[in-house]
């Protein structure tokens, strides 16, 4: 008879689990193909009834308090899972990360400010500006070169069969203009220009990675805050269970082994709470390093971006806008120009020179000077093989750059496919974990009900409590991972910075 009663209660718990999870199966597909996870509005009334009537009539007030604590933990998790800003998204602003007067977005503003002001990004900017200075340096070869020199020394000359010394310095002013160098100068200018382009894309790539880091830090603060609250609920619930078991043992309804077992689980709950508290403290320090101040937010960001629905569209956009690939392409073009410049060594260089000389500056005489105008033709006949070695090095560098570009393209294709797969997989896992957490909560309440009337062992109650806590904790992590995977895809397609209003923030090297 007792077994039949226990089976009846378990069947009622399983039916309740199916009824709770039915709205999730019937829920419409959300933004970007994600299945909404959380409490449906029609469930609130049923949840209130379940909370007020948790347990059988034989359940003591202490056990009822334990049951209500479990329902509170479920509300905490579902509150975290609820998508913020959903009402705003329905007003035609789906996926928009820009701030509006009606919906201020502290998240977007904070991330933008962090990217614009962090020292690591500023350091990258100075690197890009160095490349621009190198371009200006290469441009200088197109203009006339003006030099002034002082020439002095000890000269011995013989005039009228008499030796005389001349150590007065001469002043020389020369102006030279390059006329022909087989395109070497123009090729080096073009190579420097491509290096500027590559530096700009490298700076954008660095900024995107930092932006992802800032987004992750923002999410992680809320994630860990919620997990700490969940751990506190878990600890408090174990304290209630320990008190109940201790009271039962004192009244002769329990054993000392039950007390020790419950005490061990309570210690485990305290250890989990301590570990999460330390992790949250470390994350706060990391957040301050990224944003420059301590976190004050307690909810997930208002906007989760929409994403391309297929790999082909995402890949095509990424091929045109991904900064890593663009940097590799610029590197290949720069190496090609450098290779063309190296071949100019086999041709002569021609320049025109105008030179004026004033003799004996220590005792200048008006007529003691000269002016020369001439064309200089310079052709290297032998340099020990240096020209050939430079050309070979440039050719190998070009081949290396082409292979790097091909590698970047293949890696980008893989990353796009993996990112889309991660998004779909994490949303599905999120839905599965939500169902599991719901079922484990109902299992705990059923076992607690049976334990209160002596129909179930304590270990079943403790194990179901542990399973719920672990699944709920994993559910919180899964929600954040699912959100972050969308931002990762945006970074691959090159859309991340524009979504945060960072299309042009003083980086463009002109």
From TrEMBL:
* Family matches, as PANTHER family: OUTER MEMBRANE EFFLUX PROTEIN, OUTER MEMBRANE PROTEIN TOLC
Q: Which InterPro entries match?
A: OMP_efflux (IPR003423), T1SS_OMP_TolC (IPR010130), TolC-like (IPR051906)
Q: Which keywords does UniProt give here? A: Cell outer membrane, Membrane, Signal, Transmembrane, Transmembrane beta strand, Transport
Q: Name one GO cellular component term.
A: cell outer membrane
What domain of life does the native source organism fall in? Bacteria
Segment forming the signal sequence: 1-26
Its chief place of residence is: membrane
Q: Which GO terms describe its molecular function?
A: efflux transmembrane transporter activity; porin activity
- List locations, semicolon-separated: Cell outer membrane
Its protein name is: Uncharacterized protein
Per the UniProt record, one Pfam family is OEP
Which Gene3D superfamilies does the record cross-reference, listed alphabetically?
Outer membrane efflux proteins (OEP)
The entry sums up its family as follows: Belongs to the outer membrane factor (OMF) (TC 1.B.17) family.
């Amino acid at each position: 008879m007792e077994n039949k009663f226990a089976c009846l209660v378990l069947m009622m718990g399983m039916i309740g689990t199916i009824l709770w999870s039915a709205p999730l199966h019937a829920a419409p597909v959300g933004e970007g193909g994600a299945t909404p996870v959380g409490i449906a509005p029609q469930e609130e009334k049923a949840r209130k009834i379940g909370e007020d009537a948790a347990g059988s009539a034989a359940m003591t007030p202490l056990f009822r308090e334990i049951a209500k604590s479990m329902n509170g933990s479920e509300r905490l998790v579902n509150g975290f899972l609820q998508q913020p800003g959903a009402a705003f998204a329905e007003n035609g602003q789906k996926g928009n990360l820009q701030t509006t007067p009606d919906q201020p977005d502290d998240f977007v503003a904070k991330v933008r400010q962090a990217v614009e002001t962090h020292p690591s990004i500023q350091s990258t900017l100075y690197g890009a500006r160095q490349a621009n200075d190198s371009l200006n340096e290469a441009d200088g070869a197109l203009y006339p070169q003006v030099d002034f020199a002082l020439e002095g020394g000890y000269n011995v000359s013989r005039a009228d069969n008499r030796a005389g010394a001349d150590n007065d310095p001469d002043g020389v002013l020369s102006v030279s203009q390059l006329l022909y160098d087989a395109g070497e100068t123009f090729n080096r200018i073009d190579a420097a220009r491509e290096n500027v382009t590559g530096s700009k894309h490298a700076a954008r790539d660095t900024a995107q990675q930092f932006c992802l880091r800032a987004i992750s830090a923002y999410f992680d603060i809320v994630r860990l805050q919620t997990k700490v609250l969940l751990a506190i609920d878990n600890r408090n619930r174990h304290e209630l269970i320990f008190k109940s078991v201790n009271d039962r043992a004192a009244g002769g309804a329990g054993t000392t082994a039950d007390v020790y077992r419950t005490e061990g689980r309570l210690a485990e709950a305290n250890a989990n709470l301590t570990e999460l508290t330390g992790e949250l403290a470390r994350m706060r320090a990391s957040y301050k390093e990224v944003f420059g101040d301590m976190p004050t937010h307690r909810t997930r960001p208002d906007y989760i971006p929409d994403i391309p629905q297929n790999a082909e569209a995402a890949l095509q956009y990424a091929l045109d806008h991904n900064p890593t690939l663009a940097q590799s392409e610029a590197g290949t073009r720069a190496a090609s120009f450098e290779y063309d410049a190296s071949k100019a060594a086999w041709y002569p260089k021609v320049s025109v020179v105008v030179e004026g000389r004033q003799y004996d500056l220590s005792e200048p005489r008006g007529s003691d000077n000269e002016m020369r105008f001439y064309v200089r033709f310079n052709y290297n006949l032998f340099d020990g093989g240096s020209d050939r070695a430079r050309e070979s090095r440039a050719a190998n560098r070009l081949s290396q750059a082409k292979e790097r570009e091909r590698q970047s393209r293949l890696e980008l294709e893989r990353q796009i496919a993996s990112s889309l797969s991660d998004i779909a997989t994490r949303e599905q896992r999120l839905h599965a974990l939500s169902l599991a957490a719901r079922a484990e909560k109902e299992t705990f309440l059923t076992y607690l009900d049976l334990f209160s009337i002596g129909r179930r062992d304590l270990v079943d109650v403790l194990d179901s409590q542990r399973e719920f806590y672990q699944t709920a904790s994993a559910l919180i992590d899964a929600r954040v991972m699912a959100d972050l995977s969308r931002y990762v895809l945006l970074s691959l397609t090159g859309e991340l910075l524009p979504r945060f209003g960072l299309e042009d923030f003083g980086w463009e090297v002109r």
